[in-house]
């Protein structure tokens, strides 16, 4: 997006719009007396949250904006989720197969014990 009526064409960085929307929403909600100080505290809080959680709202906002125009932005997340699901499915299947094999072994052992006890009776 460029600035109208200007010889220069500045682009708003991806995710910046979402950051400003969040700030605007909080300003309207809180109605602070000193807006610049409130904005500074708001962004300080966002920085602390980003450092603690490794979640960057600007990056996420950029992906959301990009998703609106280009649906390939979330493919990486979808592929990671699919890989996790496939890995979980393989683990579940392996555990079930192991359970079935153990049950078969138990059955074979109990059948063998029954056969031996019957042979001893004869």
Outline the fold blueprint.
Elements (H helix, E strand, L loop, with lengths): L15 H15 L4 H19 L3 H13 L5 H47 L1
Helix pairs in contact: 1-3
Q: What characteristics describe this protein?
A:
Sperm surface protein Sp17; elongated; 77% helix; membrane; mainly alpha; 4 helices; calmodulin binding; cAMP_dep_PK_reg_su_I/II_a/b
Return residue spans where pLDDT drops below 50 for at least 5 consecutive residues: none
Number of domains: 2
For the report, how would you describe the main beta sheet? Answer: none
Helical/strand content category: mainly alpha
First and last CA, distance: 94 Å
Please indicate the percent range of residues in DSSP E strands (runs of 2 or more).
Answer: under 5%
State Rg: 31 Å
Helix content: over 70%
Secondary structure tally, helices? 4
Compute the average pLDDT.
82
Order of helices and strands: HHHH
């Amino acid at each position: 997006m460029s600035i109208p009526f200007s010889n220069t064409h500045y682009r708003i960085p991806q995710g910046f719009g979402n950051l400003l929307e969040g700030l605007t929403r909080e300003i309207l909600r809180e109605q602070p007396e000193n807006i610049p100080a409130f904005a500074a505290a708001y962004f300080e809080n966002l920085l602390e949250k980003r450092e603690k959680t490794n979640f960057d709202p600007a990056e996420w906002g950029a992906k959301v904006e990009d998703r609106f125009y280009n649906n390939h932005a979330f493919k990486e997340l979808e592929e990671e989720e699919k890989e996790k699901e496939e890995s979980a499915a393989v683990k579940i299947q392996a555990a079930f197969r192991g359970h079935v094999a153990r049950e078969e072994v138990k059955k074979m052992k109990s059948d063998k014990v029954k056969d031996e006890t019957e042979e001893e009776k004869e």
